[in-house]
Amino acid sequence: MWLFDVFARLYNLNPFTFALMMWFVVLVITASVTMQYPTRRGKLVGFGITSVGAMLILGFLQLLTLSDTGKEIKEIVTNFVVMTLGGLGSGLLAVAISEGPTKDESEQARSFVRGLGLTIFEYVFVFILVCALSLSVVCLPLWSLGWPVMTGYAVTSLLVVFLGAALGCAIVAYLRRLKKWEQRGACLLFGWMLLLVPIYVQAIAGLVSWSLAAVLGFHTVAGIAMGWTVWRQRMEWL
Fold it and tell me: Where would you find the membrane-spanning parts of this chain (predicted)?
């Protein structure tokens, strides 16, 4: 219990104690990961840990309600976090980029993309394709009848997303047949997905404002149906 009391006293010592404790934890985790895995991938993981940790700490500092003196101290703590974790993350990223991947790491990355990576992208694009197509079929007649929630721009956006998702599925199939350029293809698919998702979200914004529960219910049912289909396929393959 005395250890818990010490921890509680340190936590309540000042508003910045928790931020400094988080900084120490992030530093220890980053050091442990990079020492345990002294490879290019380990350094990239360390860069990710420091980046996420710094964002969490800075977000916590922004939520603090402080006096004028406390605000000055917050600036010092913020600069300290940015300089230390930011410098550590930048150094790890620079070393990882300058080293370049080894032959084994490149082969592992290609195997991952060929196996699980392309499968995940395929499922995501199929899910977007089915949802966009279903909503287009439902919303097109409603738009033609003058339903104010659905506009012509939204219907057009859904059709564009449908075609874009179909193109994404075609790219996945092409990469599987090609059996090379896996990492470049994965980057292309990721960028294409980031382009389609905002268009899709903007297209269904009117439906969300009309009934968020209906939109969530539709996507939940679509996700369950897709998961059930994938599970059945896996069971048949086994």
Answer: 16-37, 44-64, 76-97, 118-143, 155-175, 187-205, 211-231
